[in-house]
Fold each of these.
Amino acid sequence: MSEVFVIGGGLSGSEAAYRAAELGASVTLYEMRPDKMTEAHRTGLLGELVCSNSLRSDAPDSAHGLIKQELEAAGSLIMEAARATAVPAGGCLAVDRGLFSEFITAKIKAHPKIKLIYGEVASLSSFDREAAVIVATGPLTSLTLAEELQKILGGQSLYFYDAISPIIDAESIDYEKAFFASRYGKGGGDDYLNCPMNADEYELFYNSLVNADKVTVRNFEDEKVFEGCMPIEVMAGRGKDTLRFGPLKPVGLMDLRTQVKPYAVIQLRAENVEKTSYNLVGCQTRLKYAEQFNVFRLVPGLQKAEFLRYGSIHRNTYIDSPRHLNKDLTLKSMPHIYIAGQITGVEGYLESTAMGLLAGIYAARRLRGLDAAYPSPLTACGSLIEHITGAAQPLNFQPSNINFGLLPPLSVPIRDKAKKRQAVVARALADWERFIEQSYR
Ligand SMILES: Cc1cc2nc3c(=O)[nH]c(=O)nc-3n(C[C@H](O)[C@H](O)[C@H](O)COP(=O)(O)OP(=O)(O)OC[C@H]3O[C@@H](n4cnc5c(N)ncnc54)[C@H](O)[C@@H]3O)c2cc1C
């Protein structure tokens, strides 16, 4: 194998190119902007932030704080740029977006092992199978390349939109109100956790839902495509009882403790085998985050719900990774092609960066004939790899940001929340250090 080719100079592509080059590989990085822009990017700079300038919480014992520490321990270019261009933002790490992208662009251009080529890559077939090709073209991958990927993967393997329901921390659910059961006792009989509502509770929830503030739809996010994954508030707007005949239907469910038949039910499905987090089935939404917090907390059982992830709906190109990706981010059908960034089915600036870092490490090691080491699933980056390539995925694979729900519980439980988080973080960092030590040898 001769060279690493990286397609896409966003957060993940820049990180991948820089890491592979730092590990000794010769890298060619392709970026289509400014010749061809995406719907959201505004400049021709590398590592442009398409929306918020916040890289989320910087608290060391938060999930985003943990992934930052892992990236920094690995010498991440994106984290170096973020620290160098930080602006005051309370407990968050926010950056001056112009300076941030300029920093990344300058570092890439100055790197002796990286050649930067501006232009769209429309096909993957021209790359030598002896090379390592990292596809890091992001949620707004150019249409021509997306079509090519769809052909390579076949059938329904490329998603274009993301309809995400909120995810709740299992410990914050009131189990006096919620009960386990499957509709008509199907499956395991208790596969779902059900939050029952009486007529008054439904009325309150319904009115708050339809009156809540929504995120403004961008002009490229066509409403028409959402018939198959309609936001709950849009469905509610069609009539007061539409939800009761749809995702909130009460049929086939009875709380055996009270023997009361609910008027409406929100069903929660476990996100992982340990059942540390639950997803609100059918509650994909475009409500603003603060409104989601208020509206869903009206549901009995969720009065104190802690949101690990809020719902959203947006254009997002990503592949069905559990079916198509190996743990080293190569395509099962074409192992010289690595997939990195948001297109792998992670969600968020840092999560995308992390997938770029790993792809860069793996590609550079392969070039030197070395095996890949894998981060343990107890680390933030390893837990994301588990999420996108793990077997325990529902049929309809959904992207995820980093959250503590992805990390396995401690072997010895700790009740105090702050201490528990610190222990999870310490456990992750110890494993991460080992991974870096093995990978940078
Ligand atoms: C509108 C929008 C808003 C978002 N807001 C946030 C947010 O506020 N916070 C957050 O954490 N995450 C946000 N995300 C999600 C995600 O974290 C970011 O999109 C992130 O930039 C993804 O990193 P990436 O490297 O995978 O993709 P990108 O950063 O988008 O990089 C992909 C790069 O590939 C280039 N490219 C595409 N096709 C080709 C091609 N064929 N040839 C050559 N180059 C190509 C693009 O021009 C781009 O530079 C948002 C996503 C979108 C779409």
Amino acid sequence: MNPFLHLNENVKHNWFSLKELSCKPYNKFDAHPYTKLRVILANGAEFEAVWFLHQFHRHCADNDLRRELAFLRREEQQQQKRLASLKPINESILEHTIGYEQLAVELTAMFAKRESDPYFKKALDFALLEDFDHLYRYADLLDMQKEVKAENLVGKLTEIMPARPTIAEHRCPCDDIKRWCNFNKADLLTKLQVGIITAAEQQTMNYYMNQANFYTEKLGRELYTEIAQIEEQHVSLYGGFMDVNTSWLECLVMHEYTECYLYWSLVNDETDPNVKKVFQSHFDMELSHLATAARLLEKYGKKDWHQVVGDGQFPEAIKFGDTTDYVRDVIANTVTLTGKGEDYVDVSELESDDCFFQYQDQVTEPHRDVASHCVIAKHIADCDTDYRYQKKEHPIEELRDQTCDNTTLGRK
Ligand SMILES: [Fe+2]
Ligand SMILES: [Fe+2]
Ligand SMILES: [Fe+2]
Ligand SMILES: [Fe+2]
């Protein structure tokens, strides 16, 4: 599929009426878990599109160009509203959160499996284990406070058990800064994956930043607050791979191309006919956005879209599927890694005065009070065991004990 062969050059703005911004929500009891993930993923891309276009607008002196951006931005806004309306009223904040972390796990693992750039793959594997652990912490909160088993929400497609303990994920900011990627040399798939994963993590960060204060109970508020910090680290990590030398207009083409690729993948993968229709209509809109972006690049940037995306042929589509063995393998081999400068090292290799330990001492002590630990400790105190969904024995011996939360692995 090459979207440039299907561009709609004659862009006519057909706005959705306010009524049309509300779509029919999926049914939370019978929607496929991957449908929920796809909706969250698309919503994240639209958030990114909107915010990118605001930033561009604020850095642009030409009002003719700013008016063109305004049209695009309003359409991205409308698309985001339609996607947001697919979430049903009866799905709670915490249930929706399980979807965010399941998406983080499934998308990151799928991307890592097919990533050709070993340096970016390392980043994906690294953050994968952290979101995987978040899923476990939120699942325990959900079981304890709402008596909902998260395994039913994730459809038993994703395991729920500890990985790199969230308490061990708090790092000095300097250790999330990696080398940016040269987009002139990178594979098109790498460029797409950098953009999509950054948007997804950014959406999660924003969600937790907002939800922390609306959660109606203290431990939950603290858990959202803590994990929001880790999501900020993930946004720094992934956002740092963007090529710093691309112009605003080149970024615009890349954004619209990425949205086309995303919706094309989602349409192919979607099983709910109603949601599929929404994705299809958005894909059609994105083809017109891409046409506009290419025209603006030519007019104001004196460049051709080929210079941004080569021949424009899409790489293989995004498709959700079983990642259990892959995730287990990454846990088994890298659970005790931490960030160190532009790379990763085993925590045991750090000097005792490393900034990791200094940061940890200031932020996570006393560790008995840290929410990500308390939620498991409380579940164990109430039920004599934590809540997990495992398909077989945990690959790491230190994380097998269901009656004691490990706060030292990857940290001491
Ligand atoms: Fe969009
Ligand atoms: Fe997460
Ligand atoms: Fe994350
Ligand atoms: Fe768009």
